[in-house]
Amino acid sequence: MKILVTVKEVAEAEDDFEIDGLDIDERYLEYDLNEWDDYAVEEAVTIAEDGDDVEVVSVTIGPERAEETVRMALAKGVDRAIRVWDDDLESADMLDVGTKADILAAVVEEEDPDLVFSGVQANDDGFGATGVALAEVVDMEWGAVVNDLDLDAEGGVAHVHRELEGGVEELTDIELPAVLTIQTGINEPRYASLRGIRQAQRKPLDVQGLGDLGLDASVLESAVSRTAMFEPESESDVTVFEGGAEEEAGQLADLLRDKGVVEG
Amino acid sequence: MASDNEELHGLIRESVRGIASDFDREYWREHVDEKQFPEEYWQALADDGWLGVAIPEEYGGEGMGMEEMTIIVEELSRGGGQGGIVFVLTPVFGGIGVTRHGTEEQKQHYLPKIASGDMRFCMGLTEAHAGTNTLNIETRAEKEGDEYVVSGQKMWISGVENADTMLLIARTSEFDRSNPTHGVSMFLVDDPAERDAISLSTVDVALPWFEKQYQVDIDGLRVHEEDILGEEDGGLYMLWDTLNTERIAGAASSLGGGLRAVDLAVDYACEREVFGKPIGAHQAIQHPLAESYAKLLASREILYKAARLWDDGEDCGMEANAAKLLTSEFGTEAADRAIQTHGGNGFTREYEVYDIWQNMRLTQVAPVTNQMAKNYIGEHHLGLPRSY
Ligand SMILES: Cc1cc2nc3c(=O)[nH]c(=O)nc-3n(C[C@H](O)[C@H](O)[C@H](O)COP(=O)(O)OP(=O)(O)OC[C@H]3O[C@@H](n4cnc5c(N)ncnc54)[C@H](O)[C@@H]3O)c2cc1C
């Protein structure tokens, strides 16, 4: 059995930052593994530890800097990694969901995994769509926002809980091969052990360009473009009520009247 | 290779930081108040291979060196709690001592257990009467058949109650002026707190620390000759040999503690507003912290230089002593400034900085005093006449 885990290095901005053109000024950014992907890696590695003959491969689309993130996944137990990058990707303004899904789909074709785990979303751009879009392109079953997974590898079925709105969960069975987008809290991600870190130095990390995946620069064409980057003005103020319950109720009533929410 | 190492060390830092962050202020306070060994913490470090960092692979360790040890101790100390300095006794004195000087049986017995977290050491060296002048120790070990019979008194010995083994230093031959470091041996004494011939009385030490210090009275303790570490009469040679690793690991813990004090002070100075803006906006608060940070980073350089020299098998006495001296002074100073930054809160237990100051201040005295570090540099590196 093979599990492919998509991982992404995400940018995190400091509390105070400046915007430079269409992006946050690089000086205010730090990079780290996407939080959701940490859970996806843990889920895959746990399955590999509990099962026989499970290979876990991680794939990322990102520059050389992302290798530290990928190595950490290897240190936590991923068997090998693929990093997709080349000059065309480097010069692209933005990679939209469609582009990423197409690139990852080419990797899925090449690797032919039984399961693909992605994070529900990335905490920088937050599209929350790559996993499901990938399933669509490769024509696999999918389950989004999975917060519990019971895998029946022999039966080829994943029994999953999906987190829906309002605290509702959906319990469903998904046939393999499938793409699951993994929600935080599904497990408790480990820290890499020293042995894992040492072994990670010797695990294969293969860099592939678009051409290696049978793609070309046309995959970067996008109907979506970034037109502006700004910090939204805060539109309203916070009012803090103070006093006993009765006083606070009076203050709230006054406010609601002032704002025209209630009459009288 | 350099870049590979950088990546490796980056991953080590990040993972160790993660573990340290799982053990919060509350956890450490509880263990200090109850004087309890932090078992869960120790086990977590063992499980992920951190205690075995410098133990050879064939004995269940990871076979790395002092540079990695230093990173681990620095990050554990910076992450809070007191887990950095405890490395000095077990993975450093015990682990490196047994690795370098142990017999095959001793290595097989002790090293895998150090790596797995099942073996903790304490160090019985200091005596009230001898003090810093180790040559004057009076604890004696007399040979009787294949055993030694040990009697004497040790002072300030930390953590005897938690130790599976005591490294005990005793005189086995008369002091000989022509060969002053000869005549002292190091013994491995298992279950020291349980031995009938050893009685413990606690010393009232006012440090926010989870271990107690003891006066250790030894009367007719029988130790088998196989439990000598290194050569009979060669104990001081053994001690000097591992001393630099102890200085390096101790310095790493002072460095981490000092950086933690700066981290806490910066957080507080950004939050606390008094005259309508954060106190960190005043240079009287900001500059001392910036200066401490600069001093700590500078001392970090010589610390890592010492560690790399040791790993390369080169003399690192100058660098190890300089690192020990500077990190303990800069660390204490940083903690002092962190207290000032916190105002009245600096003296509450909640804000930790006064605890850090007390533990930092100790590192100027123990395991060895800063004067002795200066004596070493003056005499051995600058070639000045011996001052004592
Ligand atoms: C909390 C704590 C834990 C400890 N844990 C242990 C332990 O686990 N095991 C252990 O064996 N020991 C332990 N010690 C003992 C510690 O190592 C000694 O206290 C330390 O080495 C200093 O020895 P001393 O107290 O006898 O000071 P002294 O030797 O009496 O020195 C007093 C002062 O005089 C200075 N001085 C002495 N000679 C000279 C000289 N030639 N030149 C310049 N200055 C000099 C010293 O530097 C020091 O400042 C611990 C001590 C403390 C406080």
Automatic annotation (TrEMBL), chain A:
All copies of domain Electron transfer flavoprotein alpha/beta-subunit N-terminal, residue ranges: 21-217
Pfam families per the UniProt record, alphabetical: ETF
Keyword Lipid metabolism tagged: no
Keywords noted in UniProt: Electron transport, Transport
Chain ranges passing through the membrane: none
Protein family: Belongs to the ETF beta-subunit/FixA family.
Protein's name in the database: Electron transfer flavoprotein subunit beta/FixA family protein
Automatic annotation (TrEMBL), chain B:
Listed EC numbers: 1.-.-.-
Cofactor: FAD
Protein's recorded name: Acyl-CoA dehydrogenase family protein
Keywords: FAD, Flavoprotein, Oxidoreductase
One Pfam family linked to the record: Acyl-CoA_dh_1
Molecular function GO labels: oxidoreductase activity
Domain named Acyl-CoA dehydrogenase/oxidase N-terminal: residues: 9-118
Protein family: Belongs to the acyl-CoA dehydrogenase family.
Domain Acyl-CoA oxidase/dehydrogenase middle: from-to ranges: 122-193
Keyword Flavoprotein on entry: yes
Residue ranges of every copy of the Acyl-CoA dehydrogenase/oxidase C-terminal domain listed in the record: 234-380
Organism expressing this protein natively: Halomarina rubra
